[in-house]
Structures are given as C-alpha cells and as structure tokens.
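Subject: sequence -> structure tokens, single chain

Hey, anyone have a minute? Need the predicted structure for the following. Not urgent.
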Amino acid sequence: MIRHVALLFSLLLGAHYAHAQSNTSSNVQPKPGIQSLDVIASAVDEFIQREQLPDQVVSVQVKALDRRLRLAHCLTPLDTSWSSGSRRLGRVTVEVSCASPKSWRMRVQATVTKDGMVWTLARGVQRGDKLTRDLLVPRKITLGAGNSGLSTLNSPVGEVEPWIGFEFTQRVSSGKVISERMLKMPKLIIRGEAVVIRHRSRGLQLQTRGVALSDAGAQQQTQVRNTASGKIVDVLAVAPGIVEILH
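Reply:
Had a minute. Here:
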C-alpha cells in the first residue's frame, strides 16, 4: 500500500514539474541573432586587401575584438570604409557598419605591413642640396611595422627616379631614410632674375628677354615682365631660366 502511494505521489510531482517547465519555457523569448565578430574581422581584412594597388602585397593583422561585444546580426552586407584621417600603412582604422535590421557602426583597428625598398643617405646633406644618385643607398625593410626609423615619416621614397634633382628642405644626417617630406621641387625660375621667354607659333620659335615676377618649379605657371615691351606675360617654366608663353 505504501509503495503504491509513493508511486502515485512521484507521478503527480513529475507531472507538476513538467507543467511548470512548460509554462516557464513558453515565457522565455528567443535571443536575437548576434553578429559574428569573426565575420567583422574578415570584412576588415578583405577591405584592406581590396584597397591595395594591383601589384602590392600586404600583410594584415586585425586587432582582436572584445568578445563581450554584442551587435545585432546584420542581414545586409557589411559596409566598410577608411575611418576619417586613417593612414593606409601601419596602424590603420576601418569603419564597419550595418544597415538592417538594426543599424550599428564601429571602428576596427588593424596593422598593415609590407616588404619594400627604401633609400638612405650615403652622407649628410644640407638644406638646398639636390638629391643625386651618388647619395642613394638601398635598404630592404618591412614598412608599417613600427620601425623607429620610419615612425615620423609621412611617406618614404620608393621609386627614386622622379625625385632625382629635387632639393632637400632640411638638414639630414647620413644613414637616414629619405622621405617625400624632405624634398621639394627645385626652382627653375627665381623671382627677380632674368629669363629667356620663348614663343612657339606655326613651327617657328621666337624668344626675347624678361624678368621673373615669382619663383616656379618645372612645368609650373608663373608670370614674367617682357623687358622690351614692359608687358606681363603668363608663362610655363620649362628649364632653368627659360619659360614658354602659354597659348
């Protein structure tokens, strides 16, 4: 008799527990989808790789995202773009955003590096000195890796030929990496100096004398005063002390 009562009590208790569990489960709302952080990191990596030049190979390391971050799962493709003011090499920042079903936006940091060639100085130079081939010493380096020699540079000179003949804007010591900010276009025309004014017309080339009214580098526009007529003429600097009249 006792055994039957115990069994009946057990069955009743089990039914009550199952009913309670059923009611509790019916009150629990399913959690909304959470955006995968790995997908966000992959989107950043793909964006940075896509932004490189066709022949440029870079290494991208996306900074680990906080695993406590909870963002609504995006039903549309993630939108990626450079964060305002972000550089393209070294420590970079990419903005990732979602439009639907719940819009959100976040910034993701990454480190972008590449193997490249830079040029160092064989000897020290002074401000105003010109870059010549005998000053150049090649050096292989990983750009963007926080190199102490490159940390304050805007952009190291890579293809050197276009920079030959440019003037140094500052004193630079031997062994330093040459950057674009160290160089400026040489002046072909100096304000106040005499110049030759050329004029090409119908296969003929005429020339006269003048005085430069401002400085000018190669292929830069400036003005000169014709010595003979006194007229001010718009010209293009083509060589040291030589300008051509603009048509």
